[in-house]
Structures are given as structure tokens and as C-alpha cells.
Amino acid sequence: MKNLFLLFVSCCFMAACNQSDKKAANGNNQELSTLFEKYHEESLQLFPLSATTEGDKRYNDLLPVDFSDSYRDKLKSFYQRYLDELVHFDRDKLNDQDKLSYDIFKYSMDINIEGFKFHDNYIPFNQFVGLPLTLGQLGSGESAQPFKTVKDYDDWIKRASAFPAWADSSIVYFRKGMAANFVLPKSLVVKLIPECRALVTDSADVKSNLFYSPINKIPADFPDADKKRLIASYLQLINEQISPAYKKLADFLQNEYLAKARTTSGIGSLPDGKAYYDYLVRQQTTTDKTPDEIYTIGLAEVKRIRSIMDSVKNSVGFKGDLPAFFEYMKTDKKFMPYKTPDEVLAAFHKIHATMQPNLEKMFGHVPRTKFEIRQTEAFRAASASAEYNQGTPDGSRPGIFYVPILDATKFNTTSGMESLFLHEAIPGHHYQISLQQEDTTLPKFRRFGGQNAYVEGWALYCESLGKELGLFTDPYQYMGALGDEIHRAIRLVVDVAIHEKGMTREEAIKYMMDNEAISEQGATAEIERYMAIPGQALGYKIGALKIRELRNKYEKELGDKFKIAAFHDEVLGYGSMPLALLAKKMDEWAVRQK
């Protein structure tokens, strides 16, 4: 996931066939470029956490209450003002790059403004997405928030000091949701409570608190007076502000909110829930596909992939049906060879090394951003999935592939380790996000933005490249990859069924376990994720199907003139965009190849 989504300098990576278009930057409409620059600059002040993620340190001390009605009014006016300014430009007179930027920008403003019709701010956070989790990542000193200078440490004190007010406001808006029957399911609330309590410590244990971690790594060259002051300030911050705020949230959720939480699983039961879900489907897939169309696609994909899985099962001589094979793969100890987290991480490094020679054949341009593999922090590992966190444009922070390892001895090799790496790391999110951020010819709203269906669609498409990259030679690893693929197809079925067709959490968990090799714990976490973030899981398969559709089309049309590296470079060459715009841009590329 992301937590929806940057790095250092370069435009030389672009394909030669793109350069002719991109060098039309000399003929770009300067007034339009100025508008986009102003938009991005102003957006950084509205979204200071995004600025931190980009490596812009100017707003590292800010923490707005980003769900309040006043903030939303300000944000809506912001989007509308720039949309109004955009229409002053004659699109037909712009060059190709500016037309593309115009179209992406207009799409983004329109879909953002439409979203304000719904009261999603009545649920300020959940156990998968929200500031209480993000704050822990930032404050740990292992994420985007820098802790290299005295000012960095002081910026964090000021930012974190705003969290109690944020937490108090979130309670106010949770209560608004309670009054309007716009609330979380009970099964999600019970997961939130321990997450908040895990970040509470008493004064005797304050040095074990996650937020004390930067003090343990305070640079040796800091003046002694600053060290002394910062240590005292961090102790006070944690004891008097952060711990009490997390405790207050946990107590509210347990003692007041839980009783009012809903027993239904989908947002269709919320006020205006169907319209809200229809909106989220369009927003997350960047298509006009209806939920029913997506549901039908999901059923067909599940059927197709199950057929392939059955043939793999037969090829290894397993006697029994697919559910029995799934159980065998989940439970047989030979598929759990690791003893320590380091051994798990080493296995992922080996996957990277194995495919490196073929990567060079399939991609003409690769990112300069460095890359690391890390174990997910303990405080959030229980609810976390493997994920990619982007690096910074200045190279000060690498792209990081996080792997949650609760118990290395139970980490299963058939869980799709190879396909997971292809998706979350290389050539999935690391290539796409890094190349986009490194491309200084793009307006910043494109360099540092992204549409879910493109971003996750690309990453899922990359999973299908395993055999071409020298992976999936072990039938059990291939089975794991098929498991990951059917997992995304299952999402199309259960996401729609939960939110539009009345499927319960328990029914969705059973459907998932019946169709893939996943534990009940894993299926529960996944289904609860779809309950918490409706529609987001649809973008993966819809986006991947579109990219594969385009590849198949051009392979047939171009014959010997089709070059896979050129195709990949072109898909990545203009950054994220809605799928309809991607198809149009790729069709123009195919004409040039002829």
C-alpha cells in the first residue's frame, strides 16, 4: 500500500523517443508552467506531511487538523480556484506535454472536488491509514522525518506538540459520525484500540517509547547544551503530550465509540453509502467502470487463474483438490525454512540478484535512487502488509521495501516472495515512483502525485514479468505468484460484494480462503483493509489488466518492431496518469514505432 506516494535529479533517463516530446519543454506554455508551480507550492503548505515525504524541510514543524470542516472548505476552495484558472488556457494551442499536464490536472481537480460531497472526515483514521500510525513512523526516526540537525529535532518537537489538538479534534469528528451513523465497523475499532495503547508509556518507561528513538541516535557533534535541552524536551513531549494523547484516543474508542460502531461490513449501509462507493470506484480505478462490471471481471479472473493453479498442483504430483493443496502449502514445515528475520531479508536480496541480468534487458532506464530492504517496525507490524516507502529527490533517503516479520520461523516461502518483491520493490514501485520523481521535466504535481490504478496497476503488472526475469522456476514460487494474482482478482469480487451487495466480513474471509492459499489471520487482515479503505484495492487489477491489454495489442500490431524495453520505458516515461490518458499516450507511441 501507501499510503498513497519521491527523488533526486535527472531527465537523462528518458527514452530517446520521448526526448523529442519532452524537449518541447522549450516550447511549453510558461504561464501554464507557472500555474502548476504555484499550485504545487501552495499544496505543500496545505499538506506539510507530503512536503516532508518529498524531502522539502520547510514545513517539517506543521501538523494541520486535515479533516476539520474549515480545512476541507479551504481545500475545496483551493482546488476550485486552480480549476477556474486552468480554463483560461486554450488546450488546443498547447504542445503535447502541456496538453497531457492539462488533462491530468483537470481530472485531479474535478475528482477531488467531487469527493467533498461525502462525510469521510467523520472517520478521521482507522487501523490501516491515519495520523496516529504515520506519526509513529515519522517519530521513530526511521522514516521521512529527518533527524540530522538541531533544527530537525526542534521541528519534530513542534510538529508532535500539535498531536494532542489533532487527537482532540478527531474525537470531535468521530462523535459527529456517531450522531450521523457514519461510523467504523466494530471489527475495525477493536484493532485500533491496541494500536493506540502500544504507543503509551508511563514516565518510568519513557525511554522505551518509540518516540524516544531519535534521542538514542542524537548526532555526537551536537553541542552539549543542545543535547541536554533536546533530551529534556523529548522526555516532556512524550510524558505530557504524546502518551496522554494516545491514551485519550484509546480510552475514547474503547469506552464510547465501540458501542456505537456498526455491525455491518460495507459502506453501503452508511448514509449516502452507495453514491459514496460509486465515487470511490471511479476515483480509485480512474475509469467509468461500474461496480457490477468490476465484480463480473473479478469472477472471470478468479475462474481463469484457478484453472492455471490446478495445472500447477497436478504438475507437482499433489493428490487432492486445490483447497487441500493450499493447506499443504500453508502448513508444511519445509516451506518455513527461516530462523531469523535476517534470513528472510537475505532471501529477498537473493531474489533481486537473480533477476538483475534480465532487468537490464527489459528496462532501458532505471532509477538513480538507492534502494533498501528493511523489516517493518514492531509497533505496526501486526497490522501491516509489505510495502514500499519512496525515497527523496535529493537522494538523502533511499526507497525502502518494508517486510513485516512477526515470527521468522513461520514466514512461508510459498506466500509469493518473488512476486511480492516484483510488486513492492523492483521493478514495481521503486522503478515507477523513483523514475517519476527524478524526472525534472514534469510539473511537480505530476512528479510527486499519482493515480492508484496506474501506480498499483504497474506494480501488479510487474508481478507477471517473473518468468521473463528468471524467477518462478520453482513451481511453488510460481504457485505463490498465482496466489498473489488471484488475490487481486478476489479483491474485485469481495470489495464490491462487501460495499454494494451486503457480503459480510465473515463471508468475504471464507471466499478468500476458499480461493487462495492464505491463512485465516491473513485473510482477516486483508478483508478488514477493504472494509477500512473502500475501493482502493480495485485499482491493482484494473490497472494491470489495462497495461497488459496495451502490451498484447502492440506486440500484435508492431511485430518485430515491438521492443519490450521501449514499451516499459514509455509506460513509465510520463509518470502516473488516469488509465484513459495512458492508453491514448501509448497509442501515439505505437504509431511512432511504425
Task: Write the SSE topology.
Layout: H1 16-22, H2 30-46, H3 48-54, H4 69-86, H5 96-115, H6 131-139, H7 150-161, H8 163-180, H9 186-197, H10 213-216, H11 224-260, H12 273-285, H13 291-315, H14 322-331, H15 341-362, E1 371-375, H16 378-381, E2 387-389, E3 399-403, H17 417-424, H18 429-438, H19 444-447, H20 452-463, H21 475-500, H22 505-515, H23 520-532, H24 538-558, H25 564-572, H26 579-593
Parallel strand pairs: 1-3
Antiparallel strand pairs: 2-3
Helix pairs in contact: 2-3, 2-4, 4-5, 7-11, 8-11, 9-11, 13-21, 17-20, 17-21, 20-24, 21-22, 22-23, 24-26
Number of domains: 2
User: So how many helices?
Assistant: 26
Low-confidence stretches: 1-26
Q: How would the global form be characterised?
A: globular
Beta-strand fraction estimate: under 5%
Taking all Cα atoms into account, the compactness measure Rg is 24 Å
Supply the helix-strand structural class.
mainly alpha
Query: Roughly how many Å apart are the termini?
Result: 38 Å
**Helix percentage:** 55-70%
According to DSSP, the number of beta strands is 3
Largest pleated sheet: 3 strands, mixed
- Series of secondary-structure elements, N-terminal to C-terminal: HHHHHHHHHHHHHHHEHEEHHHHHHHHHH
Query: Strand order of the main beta sheet, please?
Result: 1-3-2
Kindly report the average pLDDT value: 93
